[in-house]
Amino acid sequence: QVWSHLRDMPFMFFSTDRLYFTALRVKPKNTASTHYFSSDEEFVYESFYSDFGPLNLAMLYRYCTKLHKKLKSSRKRVVHFTGRDPKKRANAAVLIGGYAVIYLKMGPDEVYRSLTSGMDSGFICFRDAAVGECSFSLSVLHCLHGIHKAMRHGFLDFDKFNVEDYEHYERVENGDMNWIIQGKLLAFCSPHHHSKTDNGYPLHAPEAYFRFFREHGVTDVVRLNRKLYDARRFEDAGFTHHDLFFLDGSTPSDLIVRRFLHVCESAPGAVAVHCKAGLGRTGTLIGCYLMKHFFFTAAEAIAWIRICRPGSVIGPQQTFLQRHNRICKEPILVHPCAEYVNPRRVHFLQFGWA
User: Fold this and answer.
1) 169 and 110 within one domain
2) How many domains in the chain?
3) Nearest CA to 262 among 335, 345, 211?
4) Do 85 and 169 sit in the same domain of this protein?
5) Distance between CA 94 and CA 5 in Å, rounded?
6) DSSP one-letter code for 185
7) What would the pLDDT profile of 252-270 be if each residue is shown by its tens digit?
8) Which of 275, 288, 308, 328 is catalytic?
């Protein structure tokens, strides 16, 4: 009876007619031919303010491995059901949609059409972690495209993903670090003069990061916030340190964007980037790199960065990335001045002029 009712509801299914997605008020009982499960209570987003997703990379990984095991271990139909909460529905859609993109090799648009088939309305959009009204809507489809593009470019590979490391190092007490591009761009919160606990919040001196940075090939550190530690402590330890300050919550100048891109393009190893929390300013500049080198759209870049590091890219920084496609499409600079990039020089390099 439940299965016949399910046929009249919006659902997605794949080539084997075994995997379904729908919204139900109560969990049905499993049958000899059908297994039902929900992710709504198992994978829960930790909000900063009014933000509610998307869920982070570890949750996507754990969901995908769990679902893959279900499909491999039985020939039953597998129905992922979600409740009526629109926020949980959107997060659930990214999970099962992400599985379809990663494991079933389906295109994002094809997956989204299946997800919304028969629905009167689509999924609500995600919002940023700022206080107040949202000025930019991030859709489920944007998230699926971000996942697809990260996988296509090789920095999303669940066969090599270490979920324990991700969950360990994302914790504030363990450094509050997330790879956005594994082995190339790391986002983290600002170090401080001394390692201590301030009102229950762990703060870390530069020395707390040295071992991790060396073990993971980090050669350059970029600071975007005001000085909370002496840069010479990184430099004396063999790291190249760069200061590219701009105000908290604001957007960078064209000069800062160009200088940041040059640092990333010329660094011999990985680049660790931080502002105060490692979310807004950090995510914005990393987004510029994704847009330039991997041809992410602004929305795809924001989606992928937030999946890797929830809460990233805030307020006007979102529309800044949308407007900044031009500078992100400029050619890779081969021999620019480290302190200043002349826009005319960019034009000369683009056309092969010295």
Assistant:
1) no
2) 2
3) 335
4) no
5) 24
6) E
7) 999 999 999 999 999 999 9
8) 275
DSSP, res 174: G
- Which residue is associated with the tokens 């494991």? 103
**126: helix, coil or strand?**
strand
Specify whether the CB–CB gap between 77 and 16 falls below 8 A: no
Q: Rounding to the nearest 10 degrees, give the CA dihedral for residues 43, 49, 54, 58.
A: -50
**DSSP string across 6-48:** HTTS--B--TTS-EEEEE-SSPPPP-SSEEEE--TTTS----S
Tens of pLDDT, residues 88-118: 999 999 999 999 999 999 999 999 999 988 6
Please say whether the beta carbons of 229 and 192 come within 8 A: yes
Residue 273 three-state SS: strand
Cα radius of gyration (the chain): 22
Of the pLDDT bands very low, low, confident and very high (cuts 50, 70, 90), residue 25 is confident
Same domain, 85 and 183: no
Q: Is residue 137 part of a domain?
A: no
Decide: helix, strand or coil at residue 208: helix
275 is catalytic: yes
